[in-house]
Predict the structure of Glucosamine-6-phosphate deaminase.
Amino acid sequence: MKFIIKDNYEEMSREAADMMAQLLKENPKLVAALPTGGTPERPLELFAQKHQEENLDFSKMKSFNIDEYIPLAKDNPQGYYYFLNKYLYSRVNINYDNTFVPDITKDIDTACAEFEQKIEDAGNLDFILLGIGNDGHIGFNEPAPYYYEKTHLVELDPDTIEANSRFFDHIDDVPTQAITLGMATILKAKKIALIANGEKKANGIRKLYEENTIYPEFPASFLRLHRDVTIIVDREAAKYIL
């Protein structure tokens, strides 16, 4: 597990964007899974800018949502597909047929199975960019006594709902369910990067840095099972490991 500490959020974002751009240059058919939320906004913007500034070609790239709220449709401004479209897809030359999100118009079990099959049909993930929740969750794999292997339905933890309420008018508007990639699907990616900024993420980054155990109360600890993980943080998130 490699740690990269940058001075601030902008530099952290640029590091992540540069990594993604290099991977896409090396493999124009990159199969990626991308995150949503506050931290990924600037990295995705900077990644998209490389299409205009460096003529970076997204036309053969495939992009999968890591997760999606239920019951928010693709055109809902609070949805996660909408987020990726806003910060990335609409700004580059990606083929929309190569952008994937679980189809929540279907039975949930069917939607999960079909989404997982699309990832397998694409040859599994070359790269996944993760955020981390204040409680250590990755995707929407929350602290729990057990984990699902593949894409599945989750009941969101109250702490996650509260943390995400900043994106909604009222906490009661935050969905209580989501579909997320399973832990095994995440770990099958060839390369993993995790980004974190701000003091609220500092304790989780300390645990990743200092501890060597794997336990379900801290979902991000499962990243220790992977051979190629890069953690990119700003100084506030790294305050306990500097």
